[in-house]
Design brief:
The chain is α/β, with parallel strands linked by helices. The protein has two domains: 1-17 and 65-106 and 152-233, TPP-binding domain (Rossmann fold); 19-62 and 109-145, SIR2/SIRT2 'Small Domain', CATH 3.30.1600.10. It is built from ten helices and nine strands. The chain has a six-stranded parallel sheet, sandwiched between helices. The radius of gyration is 18 Å and the shape is globular. The two termini are 26 Å apart. The chain binds adenosine-5-diphosphoribose and zinc ion (ZN). Zinc ion binds at residues 114, 116-117, 119, 133, 135-136, 138.
């Protein structure tokens, strides 16, 4: 049965109250990427970086999954073929909405990583500078989030999924950050149909077979109901 691969971005969590990056007043209008989302920034001022992720971690822990997250979980449950969710988001709202086996290519706010030995453990709500690693005791704990200039996680697995996709959907992502922005081309090369569900056309809009504009809590449940052959509202 047809395999569906879905890429999500900050836009799917916008209606849960979490900020996006490049919309008006977004996170990159409030903070400089080089200060809070690069390894150099962390080396220069770890306290600033921890403050940035602590605020997002606390906010994300209070956020609720919205109708779009829940609709994708339903699609995973009721679609006869495999439905793979690859997210650029570091919040846990897909899982909170009932999704399983979500691939977090940019890491997770709920995770801590030791920059010395690579050990991973659940992050405390607020991380401090010099937090000791439970495994090697080095004071080098960092958020387990992929920064600019670093390799996203599970890329081999993601490309395998794209190579087998019959349908690819990009939801709530501006298509400005690679490698995620090129997934639509990988899917197309595999012969997949491609659809974009977004509030505004993304940078890659012309690459998609179909584009549906509107808030994710409207477009995603409708799209899922169509796929599952359900009729009605
Ligand atoms: N419903 C659907 N889409 C929305 C909504 C909404 N309610 N609100 C905003 N959007 C769309 C915007 O139109 C935009 O296309 O979500 C997208 C958000 O784009 P970005 O802010 O660039 O977020 P994203 O594409 O996820 O960024 C990718 O960049 O900074 C890095 O690592 C960070 O994972 C992030 C990556
Ligand atoms: Zn360690």
């Amino acid at each position: 049965m047809e395999k569906i691969v879905i890429l999500t971005g900050a836009g799917i969590s916008a209606e849960s109250g979490l900020g996006t990056f490049r919309d008006e007043g977004g996170l990159w209008a409030q903070h400089r990427i080089e200060d809070v989302a690069t390894p150099e920034g962390f080396a220069r001022n770890p306290a600033l970086v921890h403050r940035f992720y602590n605020a997002r971690r606390v906010q994300a822990a209070k956020a609720q999954p919205n109708a779009a997250h829940k609709a994708l979980a339903r699609l995973q449950k009721d679609w006869p073929g495999e439905v793979v969710i690859v997210t650029q988001n570091v919040d846990g709202l897909h899982e909170a909405g009932g999704a399983e086996n979500v691939i977090h290519m940019h890491g997770v706010l709920a995770g801590a990583l030791c920059a010395t030995c690579g050990h991973r453990w659940p992050s405390p709500p607020e991380m401090e500078v010099g937090e000791p690693c439970p495994a090697c005791r080095s004071p080098t704990a960092r958020p387990d989030v992929v920064w600019f200039g670093e390799m996203p996680y599970q890329m081999d697995e993601i490309y395998d999924h794209l190579a087998g996709a019959a349908l690819f959907a990009a939801i709530g992502t501006s298509g400005q950050v690679y490698p995620a922005a090129a997934f639509v081309h990988e899917a197309q090369a595999a012969g997949a149909r491609t659809v974009e569900l977004n509030l505004a056309p993304s940078a890659g809009v012309s690459s998609f077979d179909e584009t549906r504009l509107g808030p994710a809590t409207g477009t995603v449940p409708r799209w899922v109901e169509e796929l599952l052959g359900e009729r009605g509202g």
